[in-house]
Every structure is written in structure tokens, then in C-alpha cells.
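yo, Lipoprotein is done. seq:
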Amino acid sequence: MAPRAFACVALLGAAACTAEPSYQLQWRIVDTPELGYDQAAELVAIDQCARTGIVKLEVTTRTAGGTEVDVRRYPCFPGAFADGQPTDGPPELEPGEYVLDVVGLRRTDEPWVCAEDDLDCVAQASATVTVSEGSLPTVSFVLLRPPECDDGVDNDKDGRVDGKDPACALDPTGPESAEAEQLILDMRMRLLESPVVELANVNANRVELTLDGETIQVLTQNDLSFVEGWYELPLYSSDQVEPGSHTLALVAYDLAGVARTEPLTFEFEMGESALYSLIDFEVSADRFVEPLVEPLSLFANLLPYPDATLGSALICELNDAAATPIDQVRLRVRDTAAGDAFLDAAALGLNVTAEDLAEGWVGLPCTIAPALASAPLTWGNYAVEAEAYVGGARCFADARDHELGPTEGLAPLAPLGLDSPQLIDLERVYVDEAPPEGCRECTPDADDDGPGDDECANPAHECVNFLCVP
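structure:
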């Protein structure tokens, strides 16, 4: 493979390398995958690209054996196209067969996603070319135009783009259309201003949506989709809403049909044309009919090594052969609705012996069962930090909700309600890329090439960075 002997600018709209190209490129854009290059319209103006949403093309050249030899980007409409000419490819490739992978890019420099089994990938193509001395082949290919609802273009000039357009909200695979005269409500909900609180946590089993007093949706937790810290409600659309003022309301109910929350309302004005509204229902503590008084309940998962799964979590002892006990867990619970005030042992009222430590921490023994539970608390909004210690050495920290995963800041907590205890994961602590001395389970032996390690509780485990891992 020849090295890249010439430096080219990152985006090639005109000749940018002095060396002769190894091949040339030309492309066209088609609306349907059935159309070939000769059936597609020639690109003669930049607006032909602009209205498709394809801004650039990234072309990767590989040898027939798969070795990458060149990657470069071109404007969707290179300057050579204005003169009816192909644009130049990379310079001075060694003679041979090459494979070209072509990917169209959005305005954000991101490609369109293509499923592995999709034979008609949007804005993607591949081709082959034979490079030989004294020849300048031209590689022609077609790109399938992105759908109107995923091209980043306001196709119907109504001020709404892609998913914000009413027609796209109804049918993401169809065209944008200014003629979609419907009411479309795109709604999401959050309870107690927290991403981990579900309906069961607040003793509710459903939410009901009404439009002008008429029920339009009854939703359980299974009907909601968790996206970016909110629960998205199913899209609601109707072409039967008359022009005028209207009121949308959301209420959460318990199993007996008693309202748990006051109605959260959204007022809107329906005109003669389509209306698309994004609505956030923030069900804060003050919107509950009665104060929400519930305990918190936790299981702490001590993850023994990087990338460990829940099934590998430690049960109050290390993985060494001595089964060294994890002798203390520390919690620091903050009432984020009250200026981040710490809850001491008395306020928490835990179901195990607990003691107040410095700086708001509460110490307690590591227990297997039952789940850690507090006295009933008035919610609010709470968050937790957690650590675990072995003989005074801090071995586990960085608490996070097991389902939610890592977040910026503290791990948010949920009231118990009708749900099961909340799972909180704690990660290993590292100092200078290794566990602290008191937290180590074994000593790596560079001379031992055999399987397993007799310092580990499971002799089939290996000692990796002072930890016993499968």
C-alpha cells in the first residue's frame, strides 16, 4: 500500500492537490431506489443538493483486501459539476482494484442511520474502480434522497422541520405537508421533577387525559416511553377539533380511581390550519392532592470490577479467598427541594442501626437483607451519595440508579409507593489507576501464566489490577 504522499484540504470543492487524480467521481440523487444513474437528473445547481438535506459526501477508498488508503469529503455539489465535469478523486494510488464507500452527511456532519438488513440505505452507496497507469476512470453512482421528514429541510415552507411538522408527526415516512389540518399533541410527563419516579412510586396506576372534559387517553406505565429523563406519552392527533379555545388536562389516579394529583392543564387555541404542540406536564410535589409521604427503600449493588453486571455484585464481602467483609456503608441523603439539606440518622429513621458521621454522612452496617428502608418521608425530591468501606479504606463510591445509569451530580431517589426497592450501583474506587491497598483482593503475579488465582474466592478467577475477575 502506498502512503498518502500528498496533503489535501479537508473539503474538496475544487482542485486542491497538485498531483494527478487516480480516478474521478460523479453522482446523482434519486427519489426512489429503483432509479439508476441514467434515469436520475444531472446535478447542475447547488439547490438540487440543498433541498435534499445532503450537504457533503464522505468517500472512503479501500483496497480489495479492505485496507483503508484514503478518506476525504466533498461538497454535495462540487465546483466541477457546474461545468458539467466530474470531480477529482485521491491522487496517485497504486495500480489495482479499489472499493469506494460513499456516505452522505447532514448539516451536522452526521450520516443517516442505515439498518444492517436495509438494501436501500439513505444517502449511501458503494462502487469499485480499477486504477491503472495512464488511465483516468470515472466512477458514477446514485444516492437515495433522505425522506422529507428526516432531511433537515422545511420542505413545505411552514416554519416547521421534520418531526416538528404535523404531517411528519403523523407519518414519519411520508412527506411534509402544509395540508395536514389536524391537532397534534406531543406530550411528556415527569413526576416529582425526577427521572426515576414512576406512577407506582406515587401510588398511582394510570394517568388520564381529557380534552374539554372528554377523556381522550387512559395510560398506564407500560404506555409511556422513557426518553432523556421524561416519560413520553403516545402522540395524540385529531381532525375533529373545532376552531376556538380548548383545554387539555392530565390527572393521575390510584387503583381505586381516586385522583392522586390536581389537574395539570394546557390551554390552546385551534385555528383553521394544523396545530402541533409540544407539552411538558411537570407533576411536582405541590400538584398532589395530599402530601406524598412514603419511605425510600434501597438495595446497594457493589460492582466488584469494571463492566461487572448486576449478577456479579458483591454481597457484603470482597472476592478474595479470605472473604474480607465490607464492614460499613455510608449514605448522604440530600433534600434537594430544601436547599440540599442533609438528612441525619434520626430524620432517615432507617431499619438498621445507623450513626451520624461528619459532613452529613450516615454510617450503617453492610446488610444482605432486608432492603434498606427509611421512615416515611415527605416528598419532595431527594438524592443520594453512597460509599462502602473495608477496614477504613474507601472501596466503592459513585452511586447511580441502576436503571438510569450514570448522571451528572447525585443519584436521584424515588419514593417506595407500590414499587420494589430502588437499585443503586456503586463502582470501584481507584487511586492512581489501582484500588486502594485495603480494597485489593489479590496480587498480580507476572510469572504465573496458569489459569486462575488461589488468592481469589473463586479459583477460576484471574487477578487483574489487584481484583479477582472472571
